[in-house]
Amino acid sequence: MSLRFAAALSALLFTQAAFAQVPAETTPAPPQPKLQAESPAQAAPTPARALTADDVAAYFDGLVPWSMARGGIAGAVVTVVKDGQVLFARGYGYSDVEKRTPVDPNTTMFRIGSTSKLFTWTAVMQLVEQGKIDLDKDVNTYLDFKIENKFGKPITLRQIMSHSAGFEEGLRYILVPDAKNLQSLGDFLKTNIPGVVYPPGDIIAYSNYSTALAGYVVERVSGKPFDDYIEQNIYAPLGMKVSSFRQPLPEALQPHMSKGYRVASQPPKPFENVGPFPAGSMSSSGADMAKFMIAHLAGGAPLQVKSARMFEISKEPVPGITGFGLGFYHEDRNGHVVVGHGGDLELFHTNLSLLPGDNVGVFVSFNSAGNAGITGALRTAILRGFVDRYYPGPALPNEPTLATAKEHGQKVSGEWRASRGGTTSFLRISGLLSHAKTYLNPDDTLSFSGFTDAANAPKKWREVQPFVWREVNGPALLKFQMDAAGKPILMATSDMAPVMVFMAADAANSTTMALLVGAAAVILLVTFLSWPVNALVRRHYGRTLPFEGRDRVFYRVSRAVSGLLVALVAYWLYLLSKLGTSIASISYGLEGTLLFLRVLGVVALVGAVFLVFRAALTFRDPRFGLWGKIANVLIALAGLVMIWCYVTYNLVSFGSHY
Known about the structure:
Layout: H1 3-18, H2 53-71, E1 75-82, E2 85-96, E3 101-102, E4 110-111, H3 117-129, H4 157-161, E5 175-176, H5 185-191, H6 208-222, H7 226-238, E6 243-244, E7 273-274, E8 283-284, H8 286-297, H9 307-311, E9 329-330, E10 339-344, E11 349-355, E12 360-366, H10 374-390, H11 405-412, E13 414-418, E14 436-440, E15 446-448, E16 461-465, E17 468-471, E18 477-482, E19 488-493, E20 502-504, H12 511-541, H13 549-577, H14 584-587, H15 591-618, H16 626-648
Antiparallel strand pairs: 1-2, 1-12, 2-3, 4-8, 5-7, 6-8, 9-10, 10-11, 11-12, 13-14, 13-20, 14-15, 16-17, 17-18, 18-19, 19-20
Helix pairs in contact: 1-2, 1-10, 2-10, 3-6, 3-7, 12-13, 12-16, 13-15, 15-16
């Protein structure tokens, strides 16, 4: 989010809240069992506005078009439901910019990304209620292949639904450019099994694979293809006629599908095909999503599930930070339970949120990524602004900053890695590209890199309980889990969806290692570049290379190996950097490239060993003076660092998963 846009958006939300009116008296909703809203209240008491159709229209009509115009967003849809009825439904902008086709909340279809998962989880719970699935049974019981793990604990559907099954991240075939190349669900799951890198049930690490696995369980237990099951058991009972998981869409629905855009001023991009389709391939209209929200707010009776059971907190990232229910995750605010799920493809960005205790649901979806990917931040701002406007909380408690803030702040300062990521594939090298850091400020507050306020300044947090920091002038918490020796091992915050936890970084994910690899790369690059430079200098002065025979071969091989080692690492990092702009660019069709890189990697490893061998030879060669020996030792050390890098980051692993 750009600084100007973020500041302006924050100001607009504040202005709307500032003109709040006192609502008419209402009867409070009955409490929900085990749905404690653990997020604190908002920063200052604000009178609530009445949740009426007119006021909701004023809120969204003021915020959404303004944000779309400044964010380069082509179209959006918003639906709000309350007490079993659609309170508000509006389309904004265009589903097809070139044809000037307006978004219709009743018929225009949006790709809802991972919000699709709520339908998969609902299907699982239908079969649980029928006694056909046991959430605590080994998931292998329901499969025709086996998920192996080294921890001696079975993976269960309960863990899968809270994203704590222990799977690492996988990107292969997540997005497929042509629907003709999509695998069947079973084939996708069998050929893309990720590593189980955490003990099942211990760590939240969001996983698309695990949701696809749950969809496959639905297929096998019900005896129906996943698409058929959803259509017959969810869409049909709710009357959702403008929704589908199918790729490509059924012919009758294709005219309703919105185009997808990077930004509104650019041509549309092709339809995004999702490989693990139960995890994110659904397309739907705002009106259909309203029916789904109403069904769950009504307790799930129309769907033959117990929705309250799905809303109950099943797993927290760290104790005291709200986490996942059974599929729905919590983003509680102002003392109100808020459950739902976001959804992001490269073009479409979505959020569905339910306030079960208030019988209210909000769905918003955009058909564009927008300038600098603004829609991800915008959907969060819209939800928080909505809750603050209609369900404000009391003032934050006047908690003093603990006297231990400096001591504890020093203890928890350091580098962290996200639990969601690649571990056994080349994706692990992403640890060299980015590092999350906590650091102590001079005023003994704590900051966490990547978390900024509306002015793009680092947020500050002050310690209000031992190893619990509250956002300064804000509601969010930052909490650390310590080990028996008093060292921080886990960190989580209520300032984001609980899709992962942060873990104390190991050497492979540290700035120190990034600098070491960088220094080795510089040494090897200088070594390689010195080869042609020295040749030009010798030619200019009419001199010859002071080596003959084997020594001349060794010299040239060492220079070539140096260049190869640097070039390969640079290309791997380039490959990973593309994730920031397009997952699709590396999720499909990389097999040939990866094989070539890995074969060259093996050659480079052998060459790195040669660099060490050559350095040893220089110590017995009187032609090399002190500086010559030092130079070759540095080259050898750089080669050893690269050997470590290639092995640690799985750059010479020939497995197909990534």
